[in-house]
Amino acid sequence: MTTTHPPSQTLLKVCGATTPQDIEAAAAAGADCVGLWHGVPGGPSELDPNGLAALAAAARSAGLLPVLVTFLSDAGALADLVRHTGVGWVQLHAYQPPALVRTLRQALPEHTGIVKVLHVQEDGGCVERPLIGAYGRAGTDLFLLDTATGDGRIGSTGHTLDPDHITALLPRLTRPFLLAGGLTPDNRPAYRDVADHPGFRGIDVDTAARDRTTGRFGVPQITALARAWRTRPTVPDHPPLELSR
Questions:
Q1: Residue 59 phi, psi (nearest 5)
Q2: How far apart are CA 210 and CA 45, in angstroms?
Q3: Ordered structural domains, the chain, with CATH
Q4: Phi-psi bin for 40: left (phi > 0), alpha (psi -120 to 50), beta?
Q5: Which residue ranges does the record assign to the N-(5'phosphoribosyl) anthranilate isomerase (PRAI) domain (predicted)?
Q6: Percent above pLDDT 90 for the chain
Q7: Ramachandran quadrant class, 181 (left: phi over 0; alpha: psi -120 to 50; beta: rest)
Q8: Among 5, 63, 122, 187, whose Cα sits 20 to 30 Å from the Cα of 152?
Q9: What are the tens digits of pLDDT across the range 66-94?
Protein backbone atom coordinates (compact mmCIF):
# COMPACT_ATOMS: atom_id res chain seq x y z
CA MET A 1 0.00 0.00 0.00
CA THR A 2 1.32 3.45 -0.86
CA THR A 3 0.20 6.91 0.12
CA THR A 4 -0.68 9.67 -2.35
CA HIS A 5 0.92 12.28 -0.08
CA PRO A 6 4.12 12.44 2.03
CA PRO A 7 4.13 9.75 4.74
CA SER A 8 4.84 12.33 7.46
CA GLN A 9 1.31 13.67 7.00
CA THR A 10 -1.25 11.91 9.14
CA LEU A 11 -4.85 11.22 8.18
CA LEU A 12 -7.56 12.47 10.52
CA LYS A 13 -10.86 10.60 10.51
CA VAL A 14 -13.67 12.02 12.62
CA CYS A 15 -16.41 9.55 13.37
CA GLY A 16 -20.15 9.73 13.92
CA ALA A 17 -21.42 12.57 11.71
CA THR A 18 -25.20 12.82 11.62
CA THR A 19 -25.91 16.25 10.07
CA PRO A 20 -24.68 18.41 7.18
CA GLN A 21 -23.31 20.77 9.82
CA ASP A 22 -21.04 17.98 11.07
CA ILE A 23 -19.71 17.53 7.55
CA GLU A 24 -19.10 21.25 7.18
CA ALA A 25 -17.25 21.44 10.48
CA ALA A 26 -15.05 18.44 9.65
CA ALA A 27 -14.13 19.85 6.25
CA ALA A 28 -13.48 23.36 7.57
CA ALA A 29 -11.25 22.12 10.37
CA GLY A 30 -8.92 19.90 8.34
CA ALA A 31 -10.29 16.37 8.62
CA ASP A 32 -9.62 13.91 5.80
CA CYS A 33 -12.29 11.25 6.38
CA VAL A 34 -15.67 11.16 8.08
CA GLY A 35 -17.22 8.08 9.67
CA LEU A 36 -20.92 7.45 9.00
CA TRP A 37 -22.68 4.83 11.13
CA HIS A 38 -25.14 2.32 9.76
CA GLY A 39 -25.90 -1.10 11.16
CA VAL A 40 -24.71 -0.21 14.66
CA PRO A 41 -27.67 -1.26 16.85
CA GLY A 42 -28.43 1.38 19.45
CA GLY A 43 -25.59 3.56 18.24
CA PRO A 44 -26.02 7.29 18.98
CA SER A 45 -24.93 8.22 15.45
CA GLU A 46 -26.93 5.60 13.52
CA LEU A 47 -28.15 6.63 10.05
CA ASP A 48 -30.73 5.01 7.81
CA PRO A 49 -29.60 4.17 4.24
CA ASN A 50 -30.99 7.38 2.75
CA GLY A 51 -29.43 9.51 5.47
CA LEU A 52 -26.15 7.70 4.92
CA ALA A 53 -26.30 8.36 1.18
CA ALA A 54 -27.08 12.05 1.71
CA LEU A 55 -24.20 12.61 4.13
CA ALA A 56 -21.81 10.59 1.98
CA ALA A 57 -22.64 12.85 -0.96
CA ALA A 58 -22.15 15.93 1.23
CA ALA A 59 -18.79 14.58 2.41
CA ARG A 60 -17.58 13.98 -1.13
CA SER A 61 -18.67 17.48 -2.15
CA ALA A 62 -16.70 18.90 0.80
CA GLY A 63 -13.54 16.97 -0.14
CA LEU A 64 -13.88 14.34 2.60
CA LEU A 65 -13.73 10.59 2.22
CA PRO A 66 -16.99 9.05 3.54
CA VAL A 67 -16.44 5.85 5.54
CA LEU A 68 -19.23 3.41 6.37
CA VAL A 69 -18.84 2.27 10.00
CA THR A 70 -20.85 -0.88 10.59
CA PHE A 71 -21.44 -4.00 12.66
CA LEU A 72 -23.19 -5.70 9.72
CA SER A 73 -21.86 -9.03 8.46
CA ASP A 74 -23.85 -9.62 5.27
CA ALA A 75 -21.40 -9.09 2.41
CA GLY A 76 -24.09 -8.79 -0.24
CA ALA A 77 -26.05 -6.22 1.74
CA LEU A 78 -22.90 -4.24 2.44
CA ALA A 79 -21.86 -4.21 -1.21
CA ASP A 80 -25.33 -3.02 -2.22
CA LEU A 81 -25.13 -0.29 0.44
CA VAL A 82 -21.75 0.87 -0.87
CA ARG A 83 -23.14 1.14 -4.39
CA HIS A 84 -26.21 3.02 -3.13
CA THR A 85 -24.29 5.49 -0.99
CA GLY A 86 -20.94 5.90 -2.72
CA VAL A 87 -18.85 5.54 0.43
CA GLY A 88 -15.14 5.04 -0.18
CA TRP A 89 -14.28 2.70 2.67
CA VAL A 90 -16.13 0.09 4.71
CA GLN A 91 -15.04 -0.07 8.36
CA LEU A 92 -15.95 -3.41 9.92
CA HIS A 93 -16.19 -2.35 13.52
CA ALA A 94 -17.56 -5.49 15.19
CA TYR A 95 -16.14 -9.02 15.30
CA GLN A 96 -16.73 -9.92 11.65
CA PRO A 97 -14.53 -12.92 10.67
CA PRO A 98 -11.89 -13.09 7.91
CA ALA A 99 -14.31 -15.11 5.76
CA LEU A 100 -16.62 -12.10 5.66
CA VAL A 101 -13.74 -9.86 4.59
CA ARG A 102 -12.88 -12.26 1.75
CA THR A 103 -16.46 -12.41 0.50
CA LEU A 104 -16.87 -8.66 0.85
CA ARG A 105 -13.68 -7.99 -1.09
CA GLN A 106 -15.08 -9.96 -4.01
CA ALA A 107 -18.46 -8.22 -3.83
CA LEU A 108 -17.36 -4.60 -3.39
CA PRO A 109 -16.89 -2.13 -6.24
CA GLU A 110 -13.28 -1.70 -7.33
CA HIS A 111 -11.15 0.69 -5.25
CA THR A 112 -13.39 0.45 -2.17
CA GLY A 113 -11.21 0.10 0.92
CA ILE A 114 -11.83 -2.34 3.76
CA VAL A 115 -10.88 -1.31 7.28
CA LYS A 116 -10.99 -3.98 9.99
CA VAL A 117 -11.04 -2.93 13.61
CA LEU A 118 -8.85 -4.80 16.09
CA HIS A 119 -10.27 -4.52 19.59
CA VAL A 120 -7.61 -3.95 22.23
CA GLN A 121 -8.74 -4.64 25.76
CA GLU A 122 -7.77 -2.65 28.81
CA ASP A 123 -5.35 -5.38 29.88
CA GLY A 124 -3.68 -5.38 26.47
CA GLY A 125 -5.43 -8.46 25.11
CA CYS A 126 -6.82 -8.48 21.59
CA VAL A 127 -9.55 -10.92 20.57
CA GLU A 128 -8.51 -10.79 16.91
CA ARG A 129 -4.79 -11.30 17.56
CA PRO A 130 -4.71 -14.92 16.21
CA LEU A 131 -6.63 -13.80 13.10
CA ILE A 132 -4.56 -10.76 12.08
CA GLY A 133 -2.71 -12.62 9.33
CA ALA A 134 -5.94 -14.13 8.05
CA TYR A 135 -7.59 -10.72 7.87
CA GLY A 136 -4.73 -9.43 5.76
CA ARG A 137 -4.83 -12.39 3.38
CA ALA A 138 -8.61 -12.05 3.05
CA GLY A 139 -8.34 -8.52 1.66
CA THR A 140 -8.17 -6.04 4.56
CA ASP A 141 -6.49 -2.81 3.50
CA LEU A 142 -6.16 -1.10 6.87
CA PHE A 143 -6.45 -2.11 10.48
CA LEU A 144 -7.89 0.24 13.07
CA LEU A 145 -6.78 -0.24 16.67
CA ASP A 146 -9.55 0.69 19.08
CA THR A 147 -10.60 0.08 22.67
CA ALA A 148 -12.81 -2.72 23.94
CA THR A 149 -13.86 -1.79 27.47
CA GLY A 150 -14.15 -4.19 30.37
CA ASP A 151 -17.95 -4.08 30.16
CA GLY A 152 -17.90 -5.10 26.50
CA ARG A 153 -18.43 -1.74 24.81
CA ILE A 154 -16.76 -1.18 21.43
CA GLY A 155 -16.73 1.89 19.21
CA SER A 156 -16.50 5.54 20.31
CA THR A 157 -16.02 4.66 23.96
CA GLY A 158 -13.68 7.58 24.70
CA HIS A 159 -11.43 5.18 26.63
CA THR A 160 -7.72 5.65 26.07
CA LEU A 161 -5.51 2.82 24.85
CA ASP A 162 -2.27 2.15 26.71
CA PRO A 163 0.56 3.05 24.28
CA ASP A 164 2.61 0.09 25.53
CA HIS A 165 -0.20 -2.31 24.65
CA ILE A 166 -0.35 -0.86 21.13
CA THR A 167 3.42 -1.05 20.69
CA ALA A 168 3.37 -4.70 21.72
CA LEU A 169 0.74 -5.49 19.08
CA LEU A 170 2.40 -3.67 16.18
CA PRO A 171 4.81 -6.47 15.16
CA ARG A 172 1.78 -8.69 14.47
CA LEU A 173 0.18 -6.29 11.99
CA THR A 174 0.32 -7.24 8.33
CA ARG A 175 -1.27 -4.05 7.01
CA PRO A 176 -0.97 -0.31 7.76
CA PHE A 177 -3.13 0.96 10.58
CA LEU A 178 -5.13 3.81 12.03
CA LEU A 179 -5.17 4.49 15.76
CA ALA A 180 -8.28 5.22 17.84
CA GLY A 181 -9.21 5.09 21.50
CA GLY A 182 -9.50 8.31 23.50
CA LEU A 183 -7.08 10.33 21.38
CA THR A 184 -6.75 14.06 22.05
CA PRO A 185 -4.37 16.85 21.02
CA ASP A 186 -2.74 16.64 24.45
CA ASN A 187 -1.92 12.93 24.43
CA ARG A 188 -0.14 12.95 21.05
CA PRO A 189 3.33 12.80 22.74
CA ALA A 190 2.38 9.60 24.58
CA TYR A 191 1.98 7.84 21.23
CA ARG A 192 5.24 9.02 19.71
CA ASP A 193 6.55 5.48 19.19
CA VAL A 194 3.25 4.36 17.65
CA ALA A 195 3.11 7.35 15.29
CA ASP A 196 6.73 6.75 14.25
CA HIS A 197 5.94 3.18 13.15
CA PRO A 198 6.17 2.81 9.34
CA GLY A 199 2.66 1.33 9.22
CA PHE A 200 1.00 4.27 10.99
CA ARG A 201 -1.44 6.09 8.70
CA GLY A 202 -3.50 8.27 11.00
CA ILE A 203 -6.08 8.58 13.75
CA ASP A 204 -9.80 8.05 14.22
CA VAL A 205 -11.54 10.32 16.74
CA ASP A 206 -15.09 10.78 17.98
CA THR A 207 -15.28 12.23 21.50
CA ALA A 208 -12.42 14.73 21.19
CA ALA A 209 -13.83 16.06 17.90
CA ARG A 210 -17.00 17.32 19.60
CA ASP A 211 -18.05 20.50 21.33
CA ARG A 212 -18.78 19.56 24.93
CA THR A 213 -21.85 21.79 25.12
CA THR A 214 -23.62 20.83 21.90
CA GLY A 215 -22.21 17.34 21.33
CA ARG A 216 -21.72 18.20 17.64
CA PHE A 217 -18.45 18.26 15.73
CA GLY A 218 -16.63 21.46 16.62
CA VAL A 219 -14.28 23.36 14.34
CA PRO A 220 -11.92 24.37 17.18
CA GLN A 221 -11.79 20.82 18.51
CA ILE A 222 -11.05 19.23 15.12
CA THR A 223 -8.57 21.97 14.24
CA ALA A 224 -6.66 21.25 17.44
CA LEU A 225 -6.54 17.55 16.58
CA ALA A 226 -5.34 18.32 13.06
CA ARG A 227 -2.58 20.58 14.31
CA ALA A 228 -1.41 18.22 17.05
CA TRP A 229 -1.36 15.13 14.84
CA ARG A 230 -0.10 16.93 11.70
CA THR A 231 -2.97 16.22 9.34
CA ARG A 232 -3.43 17.82 5.95
CA PRO A 233 -5.74 20.85 5.54
CA THR A 234 -7.44 19.51 2.38
CA VAL A 235 -7.85 16.22 0.52
CA PRO A 236 -9.14 15.19 -2.92
CA ASP A 237 -12.56 13.59 -3.34
CA HIS A 238 -11.12 10.08 -3.64
CA PRO A 239 -9.57 7.82 -1.01
CA PRO A 240 -6.38 9.45 0.31
CA LEU A 241 -4.69 6.06 0.32
CA GLU A 242 -4.02 4.24 -2.92
CA LEU A 243 -5.06 0.74 -1.90
CA SER A 244 -3.13 -2.15 -3.35
CA ARG A 245 -2.79 -5.76 -2.28
A1: -65, -45
A2: 13
A3: 2-238 (3.20.20.70)
A4: beta
A5: 13-205
A6: 78
A7: left
A8: 187
A9: 999 999 999 999 999 999 999 999 999 99
